[in-house]
Amino acid sequence: MSMTAAQTPLLESDFYRFQEQLTDQERASLGKLREYLERDVAPIADEYWARAEFPKQVIAPLAELGMYGPGVPLVRQFENSAVYRGWAALELGRIDAGVATFIGVQSGLAMNSIAVAGSDEQQREWLPRMASGEIVGAFGLTEPLSGSDSARGLRTTARRDGDTWVLNGSKRWIGNATFADVVVIWAKDVADGQVKGFLVTSDTAGFTATKIEDKIALRSVQNADITLEDVRVPESRRLQHADSFRSTATVLRLTRTEVAWQAVGISVGAYEAALRYARERVQFGKPIASHQLIQDLLVKSLANITASIALCTQASALQDQGLGGDEHSAMAKAFATARMRETVGWCREVQGGNGIVLEKGVARFFADAEAIYSYEGTREVNTLIVGRAVTGQAAFV
User: What's the family (predicted)?
Assistant: First the structure.
Protein backbone atom coordinates (compact mmCIF):
# COMPACT_ATOMS: atom_id res chain seq x y z
CA MET A 1 0.00 0.00 0.00
CA SER A 2 1.43 3.38 -1.01
CA MET A 3 1.91 6.08 1.59
CA THR A 4 -0.41 9.06 1.90
CA ALA A 5 0.80 12.51 2.90
CA ALA A 6 0.01 11.81 6.54
CA GLN A 7 1.87 8.49 6.36
CA THR A 8 4.98 9.94 4.71
CA PRO A 9 7.42 10.45 7.59
CA LEU A 10 9.94 13.24 7.58
CA LEU A 11 13.49 12.11 6.99
CA GLU A 12 15.52 11.98 10.18
CA SER A 13 17.98 14.29 8.45
CA ASP A 14 15.26 16.91 7.79
CA PHE A 15 16.14 18.37 11.18
CA TYR A 16 14.24 21.64 10.72
CA ARG A 17 11.17 19.94 9.14
CA PHE A 18 11.38 21.73 5.79
CA GLN A 19 9.40 18.99 4.05
CA GLU A 20 6.28 20.09 5.88
CA GLN A 21 6.14 23.05 3.48
CA LEU A 22 5.01 20.72 0.68
CA THR A 23 1.35 20.26 -0.15
CA ASP A 24 -0.43 17.06 0.89
CA GLN A 25 -0.40 15.87 -2.73
CA GLU A 26 3.31 16.55 -3.05
CA ARG A 27 4.12 14.74 0.19
CA ALA A 28 2.03 11.74 -0.88
CA SER A 29 3.81 11.64 -4.24
CA LEU A 30 7.16 11.92 -2.51
CA GLY A 31 6.17 9.05 -0.23
CA LYS A 32 5.42 6.83 -3.22
CA LEU A 33 8.79 7.67 -4.75
CA ARG A 34 10.62 6.95 -1.48
CA GLU A 35 8.76 3.67 -1.07
CA TYR A 36 9.77 2.51 -4.56
CA LEU A 37 13.40 3.63 -4.22
CA GLU A 38 13.90 1.97 -0.84
CA ARG A 39 12.19 -1.25 -1.93
CA ASP A 40 13.48 -1.74 -5.48
CA VAL A 41 16.52 0.49 -6.08
CA ALA A 42 18.46 0.54 -2.81
CA PRO A 43 19.02 -3.25 -2.77
CA ILE A 44 20.63 -3.26 -6.24
CA ALA A 45 22.47 0.07 -6.27
CA ASP A 46 25.85 -1.20 -5.08
CA GLU A 47 25.79 -4.17 -7.46
CA TYR A 48 25.15 -2.07 -10.57
CA TRP A 49 27.63 0.58 -9.43
CA ALA A 50 30.33 -2.07 -9.03
CA ARG A 51 29.58 -3.54 -12.48
CA ALA A 52 29.40 -0.08 -14.08
CA GLU A 53 25.98 -0.93 -15.53
CA PHE A 54 22.72 0.97 -15.44
CA PRO A 55 19.63 -0.84 -14.05
CA LYS A 56 17.33 -0.25 -17.01
CA GLN A 57 14.48 -2.02 -15.22
CA VAL A 58 13.92 1.18 -13.19
CA ILE A 59 13.02 3.27 -16.25
CA ALA A 60 9.35 2.24 -16.59
CA PRO A 61 8.44 2.38 -12.86
CA LEU A 62 9.99 5.83 -12.55
CA ALA A 63 7.88 6.95 -15.51
CA GLU A 64 4.76 5.71 -13.71
CA LEU A 65 5.82 7.82 -10.73
CA GLY A 66 5.96 10.91 -12.94
CA MET A 67 9.70 11.44 -12.68
CA TYR A 68 10.22 12.44 -16.32
CA GLY A 69 9.19 16.01 -16.99
CA PRO A 70 7.46 16.81 -13.68
CA GLY A 71 7.93 20.52 -14.38
CA VAL A 72 6.67 20.37 -17.98
CA PRO A 73 2.95 21.24 -18.18
CA LEU A 74 2.37 18.99 -21.21
CA VAL A 75 3.31 15.80 -19.34
CA ARG A 76 3.34 16.38 -15.57
CA GLN A 77 0.97 14.22 -13.59
CA PHE A 78 -0.17 16.94 -11.19
CA GLU A 79 0.50 20.57 -10.38
CA ASN A 80 3.77 20.61 -8.52
CA SER A 81 6.32 23.12 -7.36
CA ALA A 82 10.02 23.49 -8.01
CA VAL A 83 10.44 22.89 -4.28
CA TYR A 84 8.73 19.50 -4.67
CA ARG A 85 10.92 18.66 -7.65
CA GLY A 86 13.93 19.49 -5.50
CA TRP A 87 12.79 17.11 -2.78
CA ALA A 88 12.29 14.40 -5.42
CA ALA A 89 15.89 14.98 -6.56
CA LEU A 90 17.02 14.70 -2.93
CA GLU A 91 15.18 11.40 -2.47
CA LEU A 92 16.78 10.04 -5.65
CA GLY A 93 20.28 11.18 -4.65
CA ARG A 94 19.77 9.76 -1.16
CA ILE A 95 19.35 6.25 -2.63
CA ASP A 96 21.38 6.22 -5.87
CA ALA A 97 23.14 9.18 -7.48
CA GLY A 98 23.36 7.18 -10.71
CA VAL A 99 19.59 6.89 -11.03
CA ALA A 100 19.27 10.53 -9.98
CA THR A 101 21.66 11.51 -12.76
CA PHE A 102 19.76 9.42 -15.32
CA ILE A 103 16.58 11.33 -14.47
CA GLY A 104 18.44 14.63 -14.44
CA VAL A 105 19.57 13.97 -18.01
CA GLN A 106 16.28 12.51 -19.28
CA SER A 107 14.00 15.01 -17.62
CA GLY A 108 15.99 18.07 -16.69
CA LEU A 109 18.28 18.35 -19.71
CA ALA A 110 16.80 16.48 -22.68
CA MET A 111 13.09 17.08 -22.04
CA ASN A 112 13.60 20.62 -20.82
CA SER A 113 15.56 21.41 -23.98
CA ILE A 114 12.52 20.46 -26.03
CA ALA A 115 10.13 22.21 -23.63
CA VAL A 116 12.18 25.42 -23.66
CA ALA A 117 13.33 25.57 -27.28
CA GLY A 118 11.15 23.18 -29.27
CA SER A 119 8.12 24.11 -31.34
CA ASP A 120 4.64 23.07 -30.26
CA GLU A 121 4.80 20.26 -32.82
CA GLN A 122 8.17 19.04 -31.53
CA GLN A 123 6.91 19.08 -27.96
CA ARG A 124 3.84 17.04 -28.86
CA GLU A 125 5.94 14.57 -30.88
CA TRP A 126 8.68 13.91 -28.33
CA LEU A 127 7.72 14.84 -24.78
CA PRO A 128 4.87 12.37 -24.12
CA ARG A 129 7.00 9.45 -25.32
CA MET A 130 9.92 10.59 -23.18
CA ALA A 131 7.64 11.08 -20.17
CA SER A 132 6.40 7.50 -20.53
CA GLY A 133 9.94 6.12 -20.67
CA GLU A 134 9.38 4.81 -24.20
CA ILE A 135 12.19 7.05 -25.42
CA VAL A 136 15.43 7.75 -23.56
CA GLY A 137 17.09 11.10 -24.16
CA ALA A 138 20.54 12.61 -23.70
CA PHE A 139 22.04 16.09 -23.80
CA GLY A 140 25.11 16.75 -25.92
CA LEU A 141 26.82 19.98 -24.88
CA THR A 142 30.24 19.23 -23.33
CA GLU A 143 33.10 18.50 -25.72
CA PRO A 144 36.60 17.07 -25.31
CA LEU A 145 38.06 20.58 -25.50
CA SER A 146 35.07 22.57 -24.26
CA GLY A 147 33.47 22.35 -20.83
CA SER A 148 33.23 25.49 -18.71
CA ASP A 149 33.66 27.66 -21.83
CA SER A 150 30.79 26.06 -23.77
CA ALA A 151 29.09 29.42 -24.32
CA ARG A 152 31.97 30.51 -26.56
CA GLY A 153 34.09 27.46 -27.17
CA LEU A 154 31.86 24.94 -28.94
CA ARG A 155 33.69 23.30 -31.82
CA THR A 156 30.88 21.10 -33.11
CA THR A 157 29.51 22.74 -36.24
CA ALA A 158 26.17 22.83 -38.04
CA ARG A 159 25.96 23.73 -41.72
CA ARG A 160 22.66 24.31 -43.52
CA ASP A 161 22.28 22.32 -46.74
CA GLY A 162 18.84 22.88 -48.21
CA ASP A 163 16.24 21.34 -45.90
CA THR A 164 18.86 19.52 -43.81
CA TRP A 165 21.71 20.38 -41.48
CA VAL A 166 25.11 18.68 -41.52
CA LEU A 167 26.73 18.24 -38.11
CA ASN A 168 30.40 17.56 -37.48
CA GLY A 169 32.29 17.37 -34.22
CA SER A 170 32.55 15.46 -30.97
CA LYS A 171 31.00 15.44 -27.50
CA ARG A 172 32.23 13.99 -24.20
CA TRP A 173 30.74 12.94 -20.86
CA ILE A 174 27.28 12.59 -22.36
CA GLY A 175 25.11 10.74 -19.84
CA ASN A 176 22.67 8.08 -21.10
CA ALA A 177 24.23 8.31 -24.54
CA THR A 178 25.15 4.62 -24.94
CA PHE A 179 21.47 3.61 -24.92
CA ALA A 180 19.64 6.87 -25.68
CA ASP A 181 17.16 6.98 -28.54
CA VAL A 182 17.64 10.70 -29.14
CA VAL A 183 20.38 13.15 -28.18
CA VAL A 184 19.98 16.92 -28.09
CA ILE A 185 23.14 18.09 -29.85
CA TRP A 186 24.21 21.70 -29.42
CA ALA A 187 26.31 22.97 -32.32
CA LYS A 188 27.54 26.26 -33.70
CA ASP A 189 25.97 27.41 -36.95
CA VAL A 190 28.81 28.19 -39.35
CA ALA A 191 26.69 30.85 -41.05
CA ASP A 192 25.96 33.11 -38.08
CA GLY A 193 28.15 31.71 -35.28
CA GLN A 194 25.14 31.10 -33.03
CA VAL A 195 24.55 27.93 -30.99
CA LYS A 196 21.57 25.88 -32.13
CA GLY A 197 20.00 22.65 -30.91
CA PHE A 198 19.26 19.50 -32.91
CA LEU A 199 17.39 16.28 -32.14
CA VAL A 200 19.68 13.51 -33.37
CA THR A 201 18.44 9.94 -33.18
CA SER A 202 21.06 7.34 -32.33
CA ASP A 203 20.48 5.39 -35.55
CA THR A 204 21.49 8.35 -37.72
CA ALA A 205 24.37 7.64 -40.10
CA GLY A 206 27.62 9.14 -38.85
CA PHE A 207 26.54 9.17 -35.19
CA THR A 208 28.65 7.05 -32.80
CA ALA A 209 28.50 6.80 -28.99
CA THR A 210 31.33 5.00 -27.16
CA LYS A 211 31.12 4.28 -23.43
CA ILE A 212 33.71 5.95 -21.19
CA GLU A 213 35.32 3.25 -19.07
CA ASP A 214 37.20 3.07 -15.76
CA LYS A 215 35.37 5.84 -13.89
CA ILE A 216 35.70 6.13 -10.10
CA ALA A 217 32.38 8.00 -9.70
CA LEU A 218 28.82 7.55 -11.00
CA ARG A 219 29.88 4.21 -12.36
CA SER A 220 26.34 3.13 -13.22
CA VAL A 221 25.83 6.23 -15.38
CA GLN A 222 26.51 5.41 -19.01
CA ASN A 223 28.64 8.37 -20.09
CA ALA A 224 29.84 8.35 -23.67
CA ASP A 225 32.12 10.00 -26.16
CA ILE A 226 30.06 10.97 -29.20
CA THR A 227 31.43 11.51 -32.68
CA LEU A 228 29.44 13.25 -35.42
CA GLU A 229 30.70 12.71 -38.95
CA ASP A 230 28.57 14.43 -41.59
CA VAL A 231 25.44 13.66 -39.57
CA ARG A 232 22.44 14.90 -41.55
CA VAL A 233 19.48 16.22 -39.57
CA PRO A 234 16.28 17.53 -41.18
CA GLU A 235 15.22 21.09 -40.43
CA SER A 236 12.16 19.62 -38.70
CA ARG A 237 14.50 18.29 -35.99
CA ARG A 238 16.23 21.56 -35.33
CA LEU A 239 14.88 23.02 -32.07
CA GLN A 240 12.90 25.84 -33.59
CA HIS A 241 13.30 28.36 -30.76
CA ALA A 242 17.00 27.79 -30.06
CA ASP A 243 18.85 30.53 -31.92
CA SER A 244 21.63 31.29 -29.45
CA PHE A 245 23.33 29.94 -26.32
CA ARG A 246 20.65 31.73 -24.26
CA SER A 247 18.34 28.75 -24.81
CA THR A 248 21.01 26.35 -23.55
CA ALA A 249 21.64 28.58 -20.54
CA THR A 250 17.92 28.60 -19.71
CA VAL A 251 17.88 24.80 -19.60
CA LEU A 252 20.97 24.72 -17.40
CA ARG A 253 19.47 27.27 -15.01
CA LEU A 254 16.35 25.11 -14.61
CA THR A 255 18.36 21.98 -13.88
CA ARG A 256 21.24 23.40 -11.85
CA THR A 257 19.14 23.90 -8.71
CA GLU A 258 17.93 20.30 -8.91
CA VAL A 259 21.56 19.17 -9.13
CA ALA A 260 22.14 21.07 -5.90
CA TRP A 261 19.25 19.10 -4.37
CA GLN A 262 20.85 15.87 -5.66
CA ALA A 263 24.01 16.86 -3.82
CA VAL A 264 22.01 17.27 -0.63
CA GLY A 265 20.56 13.80 -1.25
CA ILE A 266 24.05 12.32 -1.49
CA SER A 267 24.93 14.02 1.79
CA VAL A 268 21.77 12.60 3.36
CA GLY A 269 22.50 9.08 2.09
CA ALA A 270 26.02 9.18 3.51
CA TYR A 271 24.81 10.68 6.80
CA GLU A 272 22.11 8.05 7.26
CA ALA A 273 24.63 5.25 6.67
CA ALA A 274 27.12 6.83 9.07
CA LEU A 275 24.46 7.31 11.75
CA ARG A 276 23.31 3.68 11.46
CA TYR A 277 26.89 2.51 11.74
CA ALA A 278 27.59 4.72 14.76
CA ARG A 279 24.60 3.30 16.58
CA GLU A 280 25.60 -0.31 15.85
CA ARG A 281 29.40 -0.25 16.00
CA VAL A 282 30.75 -1.03 19.49
CA GLN A 283 34.23 0.04 20.54
CA PHE A 284 35.65 0.35 24.06
CA GLY A 285 32.54 -1.41 25.32
CA LYS A 286 29.91 1.00 23.98
CA PRO A 287 28.42 2.20 20.67
CA ILE A 288 30.66 4.75 19.00
CA ALA A 289 27.60 7.02 18.76
CA SER A 290 28.27 7.81 22.44
CA HIS A 291 31.76 9.12 21.68
CA GLN A 292 32.17 12.88 21.58
CA LEU A 293 34.29 12.98 18.41
CA ILE A 294 31.79 10.84 16.51
CA GLN A 295 28.93 13.08 17.61
CA ASP A 296 30.93 16.08 16.42
CA LEU A 297 31.29 14.57 12.94
CA LEU A 298 27.60 13.67 12.78
CA VAL A 299 26.40 17.08 13.95
CA LYS A 300 28.68 18.91 11.50
CA SER A 301 27.27 16.70 8.73
CA LEU A 302 23.70 17.37 9.80
CA ALA A 303 24.35 21.12 9.95
CA ASN A 304 25.68 21.04 6.38
CA ILE A 305 22.59 19.16 5.25
CA THR A 306 20.25 21.54 7.06
CA ALA A 307 21.91 24.68 5.67
CA SER A 308 21.90 23.21 2.17
CA ILE A 309 18.20 22.30 2.34
CA ALA A 310 17.41 25.84 3.49
CA LEU A 311 19.35 27.41 0.62
CA CYS A 312 17.96 25.01 -1.99
CA THR A 313 14.41 25.47 -0.73
CA GLN A 314 14.60 29.22 -1.20
CA ALA A 315 16.31 28.90 -4.60
CA SER A 316 13.47 26.65 -5.77
CA ALA A 317 10.86 28.93 -4.21
CA LEU A 318 12.27 31.85 -6.20
CA GLN A 319 11.97 29.70 -9.31
CA ASP A 320 8.31 29.04 -8.47
CA GLN A 321 7.77 32.80 -8.15
CA GLY A 322 9.47 33.52 -11.48
CA LEU A 323 12.27 35.34 -9.66
CA GLY A 324 15.03 32.75 -9.92
CA GLY A 325 18.10 33.86 -11.82
CA ASP A 326 21.31 32.23 -12.94
CA GLU A 327 22.98 33.55 -9.80
CA HIS A 328 20.49 31.81 -7.50
CA SER A 329 20.87 28.38 -9.09
CA ALA A 330 24.64 28.89 -9.30
CA MET A 331 24.97 29.70 -5.59
CA ALA A 332 22.81 26.71 -4.66
CA LYS A 333 24.92 24.36 -6.75
CA ALA A 334 28.25 25.76 -5.57
CA PHE A 335 27.29 25.76 -1.88
CA ALA A 336 25.47 22.43 -1.71
CA THR A 337 28.19 20.52 -3.56
CA ALA A 338 30.98 22.01 -1.45
CA ARG A 339 29.12 21.07 1.73
CA MET A 340 28.42 17.63 0.25
CA ARG A 341 32.13 17.06 -0.27
CA GLU A 342 32.80 17.87 3.38
CA THR A 343 29.89 15.78 4.59
CA VAL A 344 30.72 12.56 2.75
CA GLY A 345 34.29 12.86 4.02
CA TRP A 346 33.15 13.18 7.61
CA CYS A 347 30.71 10.28 7.19
CA ARG A 348 33.47 8.10 5.77
CA GLU A 349 35.54 9.07 8.79
CA VAL A 350 32.77 7.93 11.15
CA GLN A 351 33.10 4.45 9.65
CA GLY A 352 36.89 4.40 9.84
CA GLY A 353 38.48 1.84 7.54
CA ASN A 354 35.08 0.25 6.93
CA GLY A 355 34.08 3.45 5.17
CA ILE A 356 35.77 2.39 1.94
CA VAL A 357 33.68 -0.79 1.60
CA LEU A 358 30.44 -0.62 -0.41
CA GLU A 359 28.44 -2.77 2.00
CA LYS A 360 28.81 -0.24 4.82
CA GLY A 361 26.83 2.32 2.86
CA VAL A 362 29.04 5.41 2.65
CA ALA A 363 31.66 4.50 0.04
CA ARG A 364 29.40 4.84 -3.02
CA PHE A 365 28.19 8.27 -1.93
CA PHE A 366 31.77 9.27 -1.10
CA ALA A 367 32.91 8.39 -4.63
CA ASP A 368 29.86 9.72 -6.51
CA ALA A 369 30.17 13.09 -4.79
CA GLU A 370 33.26 13.84 -6.86
CA ALA A 371 31.28 13.77 -10.11
CA ILE A 372 28.36 15.81 -8.78
CA TYR A 373 30.85 18.37 -7.48
CA SER A 374 32.04 19.03 -11.04
CA TYR A 375 29.12 18.59 -13.42
CA GLU A 376 26.49 21.25 -14.22
CA GLY A 377 29.15 23.89 -13.67
CA THR A 378 32.19 23.66 -11.45
CA ARG A 379 32.21 25.45 -8.11
CA GLU A 380 34.60 28.04 -9.53
CA VAL A 381 32.44 28.89 -12.55
CA ASN A 382 29.27 29.02 -10.48
CA THR A 383 31.06 31.33 -8.05
CA LEU A 384 31.89 33.66 -10.95
CA ILE A 385 28.22 33.72 -11.98
CA VAL A 386 27.27 34.84 -8.48
CA GLY A 387 30.20 37.24 -8.35
CA ARG A 388 29.06 38.91 -11.58
CA ALA A 389 25.59 39.37 -10.09
CA VAL A 390 26.78 40.94 -6.84
CA THR A 391 29.54 43.18 -8.26
CA GLY A 392 28.23 43.98 -11.72
CA GLN A 393 31.62 42.93 -13.10
CA ALA A 394 32.28 39.81 -15.16
CA ALA A 395 35.48 38.04 -14.08
CA PHE A 396 35.34 35.30 -16.72
CA VAL A 397 38.43 34.88 -18.88
Answer: Belongs to the acyl-CoA dehydrogenase family.
